[in-house]
Amino acid sequence: MGRRSGILEFAVLGLLRESPMHGYELRKRLNTSLGVFRAFSYGTLYPCLKTLVANGWLTEEPGSTSEDAVAAPLAGRRAKIVYRLTAEGKEHFEELLSQTGPDAYDDEHFAARFAFFGQTSRDVRMRVLEGRRSRLEERLEKMRASLARTRERLDDYTLELQRHGMESVEREVRWLNELIESERAGRDLKGSATGGTAQQDTTSGATGGLPRTRESSRPDTPGDTAT
């Protein structure tokens, strides 16, 4: 399974854990609510859904009402399919949600994981946040060392771009420090819903959107500059 398809499956399962949805609604939520993916097509979504159904993690059902199921064929249209999470699918998603390995805090995967923090236990959130911070601190150290070695050979614009990348990473590290402090103090984010996704805005960086809360002052650009 590719990394991007793995992130997509995770996000689909997470959204369907909240409620059953049509494919159109799923695509809309993935593209606008979570902000995890860009230019997200049905050609990518439906093969993913078919795989999840084949694995027994989702079921396909006719439209939400019997009227939908009858009216569509009479009008020459296909009945809408509603995708619903199975018990096995819920168990699989909870297993994915509990994982705290390196993939959980890579640039794109971290954005998806953060979008579902409202469904994640506090100790798992802490491990993911601390892993992300450690990853970015290592990246920042390498960026500083590289800049020190090459500063004299860079023109002003390239140098400014390097500084911008470092500042982006530094802002995200400060943001992570605030989140970790809140988690340690047992505080939830202001305005967070139980599901965790409805109350979040996102910002987009070079390699992936990073969710942020509306009521907090967070970095404008996540630290996903390449090392």
Automatic annotation (TrEMBL):
Coiled coil: 126-167
Domain of life: Bacteria
Annotated Gene3D superfamilies: Winged helix-like DNA-binding domain superfamily/Winged helix DNA-binding domain
A Pfam family per the record: PadR
Chain intervals with Polar residues compositional bias: 195-205
Keyword tags: Coiled coil
Annotated segments matching region Disordered: 184-227
Provenance organism: Streptomyces carpinensis
Residues of the Transcription regulator PadR N-terminal domain: 12-95
SUPFAM superfamilies: Winged helix' DNA-binding domain
Protein name, entry field: Helix-turn-helix transcriptional regulator
Alphabetized InterPro entries for the sequence: Metal_resp_DNA-bind_regulator, Tscrpt_reg_PadR_N, WH-like_DNA-bd_sf, WH_DNA-bd_sf
Organism ancestry: Bacteria, Bacillati, Actinomycetota, Actinomycetes, Kitasatosporales
